[in-house]
């Protein structure tokens, strides 16, 4: 699924990589490790990689491969990119601010805020709480399962500038049979966060985009973080976004990908509050560190966000032991664990992590989310960026 935090183009040669001026204070061993990790990702058919690690002792940036394969140029150090489902963390934090202000409750039923919207095929907003939306325990099907054009090259090219409303996305999800009784299981569904965005609008009187801007982006001075709406372009410097689409003989183990195409320009409304935002590695790190250190949410709401539940086998295959909170994941690692929420969207893969005390955070951007390993390289069975994130958060101090 394109917007799932878990996601499984053409092979590229290594391009000379380096560090930004901000990275000169970092210990050489850590920098070399991250550079080797970034270089290693290219064998999975990743065109280009950009990494930024923020620490109390200084920041490190490394990059590898190409931001533009045809031109042979690297990913810009200050590249903007589509962050996919990392958007969910911003949306969850915004909704939790409203909870802290008494505007709504996590125990409110969806029906209270969106009467009659979630009805059909055993899906019922009278049975689903706001908490269950944020924690993916609603049982609502993912609307992307009824949006085949996102996953087919010909249909994508025909629809890439199409505007999809929130109501249309929800209707597609509700049009599918309920997956389980609310609160009894866990399954990742983008429908949950489209509904969360709509509830933000009902509770605040402003769109979810306006509230994210007002409550998070502006106060934290995230100068290069955007809620693009219907705008199809990425403002400022950016890599080319490459996507391979499944072929006619695609299977669960072999997607039979075609050649990569440029999907940089697209109307992201089909992703909405589930994954349409644009940001940078620097802004992403600033947000993650502010979030876990209490600069975004009051203590009670941060505690609610960090109450986690087990996920399912499919999700754990990407990150063993992962648990899901409210718009954020807890992922075990070699130094205990970290908070994270990655995101995949056609053309980009975002991965990240922040230590519980906020002393270190890392954001990684790849300019594809369709991996095609080089000849002789096995198809990955878990998330390919996890070792890099682990080394960034747990490596040389």
Classify the helix fraction into a percent range: 25-40%
CATH topology: Beta-lactamase
Query: Could you list the spans in which at least 5 consecutive residues all have pLDDT below 50?
Result: 4-26
Beta-strand proportion: 5-15%
| Number of separate helices | 12
Order of helices and strands: HEEEHHEEHHHHHEEEHHEHEEEEEEH
Cα-atom Rg, whole angstroms?
20 Å
Distance between the termini: 36 Å
Mean pLDDT: 93
Q: Outline the biggest β-sheet.
A: 5 strands, antiparallel
CATH architecture: 3-Layer(aba) Sandwich
CATH class: Alpha Beta
Within CATH, the superfamily carries the name: DD-peptidase/beta-lactamase superfamily
- Give the strand line-up of the largest sheet: 2-1-15-14-13
Structural class: alpha+beta
General shape: globular
Overall domain count: 1
The counted number of beta strands is: 15
What can you see in these coordinates?
A hairpin with a 2-residue loop joins strand 1 and strand 2. The strands form five sheets. The protein has a five-stranded antiparallel β-sheet with strand order 2-1-15-14-13, sandwiched between helices. Strands 9-10-11-12 form a four-stranded antiparallel β-sheet, with no helix packed on it. About 6% of the residues have low confidence. The two termini are 36 Å apart. Helix 2 packs across helix 10 and helix 6 crosses helix 7. It is globular, with a radius of gyration of 20 Å. By secondary structure, the protein is of the alpha+beta class. The chain has one domain: DD-peptidase/beta-lactamase superfamily (Beta-lactamase, 3-Layer(aba) Sandwich).
